[in-house]
Amino acid sequence: MSDSEQRNRPGAPANEPTGALSEQVRKVSATKRGGGDPGGRGRTTIADGVVEKIAGLAARDVEGVHAMGSGLSRTFGAVRDRVPGGGKSSVTRGVKAEVGEVQTALDLEIVVEYGVPIAELARDVRENVISAVERMTGLEVVEVNIAVSDVKLPDDDEDEEPEGRLQ
After folding, report:
1. Residue from 104, 116, 113, 101 nearest 155 by CA
2. Environment class of residue 159 by beta-carbon count within 10 Å: exposed (0-12), middle (13-18) or buried (19+)?
3. Can you tell me the mean pLDDT for 124-138?
4. Over the stretch 8-60, which tens digit does the pLDDT of each residue have?
5. H-helix segments, the chain
6. How far is CA 132 from CA 18, 100, 123, 127, 141, in A?
7. Which SS3 state, helix, strand or coil, does residue 109 take?
8. 3-state SS assignment for residue 26
9. 97, CA 20 to 30 Å: which among 18, 47, 48, 79?
10. 3-class DSSP state for residue 147?
11. Hey, how many other C-beta atoms are within 10 angstroms of the C-beta on 56?
12. What is the spatial distance between Cα 46 and Cα 149, in angstroms, rounded to a whole number?
């Protein structure tokens, strides 16, 4: 049946295309109606704190990292953690992120355990942090700067938080 026969057949609307042309019109109208890819409709922003938490957890997962942050920041952090609404969580201690639209840069301050090769540990921390941040956020990690601020000695128990009797 030709296009002209289909247009002239009873019950066929006069202004509606038929055949191959009808198929093309349906495809075009389907894409115009929804506006294209649903993933491209809107904007996603990721806060610095989100990236800091991801990086902090990923860094702590590496064997040989004893703690994050300098001794002073850990001391103040221990006090802040005991106060309700005390501010920055221990997860982000020692982590600073600068987040752009598609990239992020990170600064980490870590305390290593005695006897761990620091260069290898830093490489492992970088790999773990980059992998976690890029996988979870989709941002490109352009750099991870690591500052080793202290070494945890085997008999050095003053860094450990004592068991409190707070109720």
Report:
1. 113
2. middle
3. 98
4. 555 555 555 566 555 554 554 445 556 677 777 888 999 999 999 999 999 99
5. 3-8, 19-34, 48-60, 71-82, 118-137
6. 52, 17, 14, 9, 10
7. strand
8. helix
9. 79
10. strand
11. 24
12. 28
| Beta bridge mates, 147 | 109
First to last CA, the chain: 86
Q: How far apart are CA 113 and CA 159, in angstroms?
A: 12
Span 82-119, pLDDT tens digits: 666 655 558 899 999 999 999 999 999 999 999 999 99
Residue-level pLDDT at 70: 77
Tokens linked to 9: 């057949």
How far apart CA 24 and CA 78 sit, in angstroms, is: 66
8 A C-beta contact, residue 34 and residue 52:
no
User: Which pLDDT tens digit goes with each residue over 59-80?
Assistant: 999 999 999 997 655 455 555 5
- Read off the amino acid at residue 71: G
Phi and psi, residue 132, nearest 5° = -65, -45
Angle at 8 between CA 6 and CA 10, to 5 degrees: 95
